[in-house]
Amino acid sequence: MPEPERPMLNIKDPRWREISWEQAFKAASPTVADVLERALAGRDLNFDDGLALCGATDDDLLAVLKIANELRRRAVGDRVTYVVNRNLNFTNVCIVGCAFCGFSRGPNSPDAYFHSTESLLAKCVEGVERGATEVCIQGGLPRDLDGTYYANLLRAIKLRLPDLHLHAYSPMEVVYGVEKTGMDLQGYLRALKEAGLGSIPGTAAEILDDKVREVLSPNKLKVRQWVDVIRTAHELGIPSTSTMMYGHAELPDHWVRHLLLLREIQKDTGGFTEFVPLGFIHSQTRLYRTGRARAGSSFAEHLLVHALARLLLNGHIKNIQVSWVKLGFEKALACLEAGANDFGGTLMEESISKSAGSNFGECVSPGELRALIRTIGRTPAERTTAYKIRRVFQHADADELLPLERMAAHTEKSIPFGPAAY
Question: Tell me, what DSSP letter sits at residue 362?
């Protein structure tokens, strides 16, 4: 039996671009309006509230998106921030075997690599010459990795570039370093900090539910281990991002529990700089090819997840980042109108999403980011990793040119406006 046709909302529709949050709020059902009213009053929403928002459709969904965007405006204003950074994926050799990953290779694979420290230093120098203030360092987990490698790499970069912020090593990598060195977690993180670590990416989170994690990667660290690494890092003064991968084998209740766990940690430590929803890139992954995951998310689901994050984390984690490399520019801009406020980084080089099947590019220039931000009437601002503003661009300059070819190739004319395709 064919599925009933869903209402469609074109991205140019005045209801999306022009309706006020007050109008949207008035059109919401009593149940959703009650939840949104408490959010607007600054109250923490609970699990049942979050689940009610996940089921929003039609006018309720529009109200969720618009109120999330209003909370964004109240929390951080109308600036959209970004960081000039470079990715360093130092190796794609990995023993973990995550079913959702298209990046990892075996040590004897013809396209396996492990970049030398000198080549990584050259990439850092090139990044700084192009304006980077941060490098983000992550890689696979080779079986024969020396436990001191992570600290030695940080130390080498800092020696050459002492002012460069080193945003490095997921909780999975940290746990692997602990295993390889035999050090305790606190001592190992302290050693990384002394070697130059500035912050850690809160990746390897996927969905913070051990049953879902068994489907995604039974060999990966458990929820307790992820939380231990993050809490310990925060206690040592090492901030982190936070993330959630959605669009695979999880359900909406997993989104809500995941976000509430992050909120609980943030209440205790204050160490999260931002939250980054990461849409599952499916096409080149074993998880999807073996029928254990859906084919990523609908446009409506992307919007809903970003809005839900703003509503559940409001007052605790004020920066919600879009991942343009996973969403593409059109969807990323739409999510910036559904509660998000940060465009992420320029990357300069990206391997992990690309290997899983993303075709939205590996690099975007600061000028292109600023030009994109202006298309939704917001003001671009360059930031540091810690969200200190380096420069606000009130007026456009000669570098601000839209990446027209990429946008033309990946623009979607309309989005489903109704139930998200779970």
Answer: S
* Closest by Cα among 267, 283, 257, 129 to 205: 257
Please identify which residue in the block is written with the tokens 């980011």. Answer: 369
Phi, psi of 287 (to 5 degrees): -55, -45
* CB 414 within 8 Å of CB 334: no
Render 43-90 in DSSP notation, one character per residue: PPP-HHHHHHHHT--HHHHHHHHHHHHHHHHHHHTTEEEEE-EEEEE-
Give the number of other Cβ atoms within 10 Å of residue 410's Cβ.
15
The residue-averaged pLDDT of 199-208 equals 96
Assign 239 a pLDDT band (cuts: 50, 70, 90): very high
Looking at residue 209, its amino acid is: D
d(CA 36, CA 53): 9
pLDDT of 415 higher than 50: no
Please give the angle made by the CA atoms of 384, 343 and 327, to the nearest 5 degrees: 145
Specify the CATH architecture of the domain 79-416: Alpha-Beta Barrel (3.20)
Following DSSP, what letter does each residue of 15-30 receive, concatenated?
HHHT--HHHHHHHS-H
Q: What is the DSSP annotation of 247-314?
A: SSS--HHHHHHHHHHHHHHHHHH--EEEEEEEE---TT-HHHHTTSS-SS--HHHHHHHHHHHHHHHT
Q: Which is it for strands 8-10 and 79-83: parallel, antiparallel or unpaired? A: unpaired
Q: Who's near 304: CB < 8 A, 6+ residues apart?
A: 53, 54, 56, 61, 64, 65, 338, 420
Both structure tokens of 286: 């074993």
> How many helices (H) and strands (E) would you count in the chain?
19, 12
**Average model confidence (pLDDT) for the chain?**
87
What whole-number percentage of the chain has pLDDT above 70?
A: 85
Domain segments of the chain: what residues?
A: 9-75, 79-416
> What is the C-alpha radius of gyration for the chain, rounded to an integer number of angstroms?
21
Any bridge partners for residue 380, and if so which? 80
How far apart CA 310 and CA 304 sit, in angstroms, is 10
pLDDT score at 349: 65
pLDDT in tens, 139-156: 988 999 999 999 999 999
CB 241 within 8 A of CB 266: no
